[in-house]
Design brief:
Length: 497
């Protein structure tokens, strides 16, 4: 995936020039202050915001460092002058990273490989299995006549070899080499994120590449609340794959730590004879406000939640920058694991099946709420806790039963002893909010799957969008293991007796 950071600019001053040039179309010119000192390079992955505080202004004392002599003078095409104070962007984590003497990323991940644990991801057709340090498998199970299970599978990569055990001195040298390497980065949900790659090869031969074996790069990413989930599987080129795994094991290493990207403020004070904001910028903001008001009047009606105002296509387009897109696979929205309750199993099952206890998930821009037998919501909370909600689907038993006549509502797993158990049930939720792209209501298939875990009340929720505004919501939890065998032929669940 191409890194946004390939377009290089010169410091926050360049960000200001780009903003004034592109947004206000002022044709700004800059004269460097503070002795004309050179400004450091920066990547456009670092976000900036221009403020116009006026003459009476006190620089913030917390957060990013500012100095009175770190500024440039901006002159607009109308000869308006502004003194713009720039943030000092030296990384506060450099010393911590330099002094780090702890385990290498490979050592931090070693417990995951020793446990021989596997992570799974259900998509609309394929299921992906990553057995850490062993293999990656893509498979589809289909029930044939007579309850026979037919499995179609491909290995996307196998671990070629294990590193030999090093003596302490050699291991220390290897760690020093690792620390000197540049950490690779990947755009994940709009954030350039460090990852630790592990290559896997010798997969199933690929007919499209003269039977060369499939291969994969597994990218381990720090996320403090994750449980080693598969965030995405992408076929970046024919029969070569990228797999992103969220894990808390890397988070103790400062170079791989999960960090939010703060918006860095640039403060532009008007100099004598200039208005608070450039005149052309004020005109542009007024035009934009009028345009938004016209759009609001023309917007089609949406079903609104109690706390939100849905923000139409503009919100949809903006949110797409916060969703990783898997190349060659359905669009992946997000995944997250939470610990859902301290209730007893019986209480939790009854409340879940009654729809009074809802599951929540997601770690990116959008979060998800699933209330069994009621609805699936997609929502976002901003920094002021204002909530934007989109109804992805609502429950209607008759519509589900009609759907179940044409689709597989109950999937089985064949045990070693020959007995079958239900491994997944699927439910249809339709009649969601109107989709701008299709002019039809949104709809979602909810796939409930048993997932064993050390935490008995953990739940993993993720969403896919195989087709525009037609979603698949995966819900995996040990709680679901206890109720799957109650499913009838239509996938309807009941409280275990």
């Amino acid at each position: 995936m191409e890194r946004r950071g390939k377009r290089r600019c010169r410091g926050p001053a360049a960000a200001l020039l780009l903003l004034l040039g592109a947004v206000t179309m002022l044709g700004a010119k800059a004269a460097a202050g503070a002795g004309g000192r050179s400004l450091p390079q920066f990547s456009d992955d670092v976000p900036f915001r221009v403020n116009w505080p006026g003459i009476e202004f006190t620089l913030p004392t917390a957060g990013v460092l500012y100095k009175e002599d770190h500024y440039i003078i901006m002159t607009t095409s109308e000869k308006e002058k502004y003194k713009c104070i720039l943030p000092m962007l030296a990384s506060g984590n450099e010393e911590e990273e330099k002094d780090y003497k702890g385990p290498s990323p490979a050592e931090l991940l070693e417990p995951l490989f020793k446990q021989s644990s596997c992570s799974y991801r259900i998509e609309s057709y394929w299921t992906y299995e990553v057995c850490h340090g062993k293999h990656i498998r893509q498979y589809h199970e289909e029930k044939e006549t007579g309850q026979k299970i037919n499995i179609q599978e491909y290995f996307l990569g196998n671990m070629l070899h294990k590193s030999p055990i090093l003596d302490p001195e050699q291991e220390e040298k290897e760690n020093e080499k690792d620390s000197a390497k540049e950490i690779p980065m990947k755009n994940i949900e709009g954030q350039m994120t460090p990852y630790y790659p592990i290559g896997m090869g010798n997969g199933t031969p690929c007919t499209l590449r003269q039977n060369l074996p499939r291969s994969s790069s597994v990218m381990y990413v720090c996320h403090p609340e994750a449980k080693h989930e598969i965030l995405s599987v992408a076929e970046v080129t024919t029969c070569e794959y990228e797999v992103v795994i969220l894990t808390p094991l890397l988070c103790s290493h400062p170079k791989y730590r999960f960090r939010a990207s703060p918006v860095n403020d640039i403060f532009c004070q008007s100099l004598p004879g200039a208005p608070l904001k450039p005149h052309n910028l004020q005109k542009l903001e007024q035009l934009e406000q009028e345009h938004q008001q016209q759009q609001e009047m023309m917007k089609p009606p949406y079903r609104r939640g109690k706390e939100e105002e849905v923000n139409s296509a503009k919100e949809e387009k903006f949110s797409s920058f916060h969703k990783p897109v898997a190349v060659g696979t359905p669009h992946l929205l997000t995944v997250g694991t939470t610990h859902i309750s301290k209730l007893t199993d019986d209480q939790l099952i009854k409340e879940f099946l009654s729809g009074s206890y809802c599951f929540h998930g997601g770690v990116g821009w959008w979060r998800y709420e699933f209330c069994y037998g009621k609805y699936v919501h997609q929502y976002h909370k901003d920094k002021d806790n204002a909530k934007t909600t989109i109804v992805v689907g609502t429950w209607n038993k008759e519509e589900h039963l009609q759907w179940a006549q044409k689709n597989v509502a109950r999937a089985y797993h064949l045990k070693d002893d020959g007995l079958q158990t239900v491994k997944m049930v699927s439910h249809y939720y339709g009649n969601g909010d109107l989709c701008d792209l299709t002019d039809k209501p949104r709809q979602v298939t909810v796939k409930l799957k048993c997932k064993e875990s050390d935490s008995p009340h953990a739940v993993t929720v993720y969403m896919l969008e195989p087709h525009s505004c037609q979603y698949v919501l995966g819900v995996e939890s040990p709680v679901i293991c206890k109720i799957l065998d109650t499913a009838d032929e239509n996938g309807m669940l009941s409280v275990p007796s």
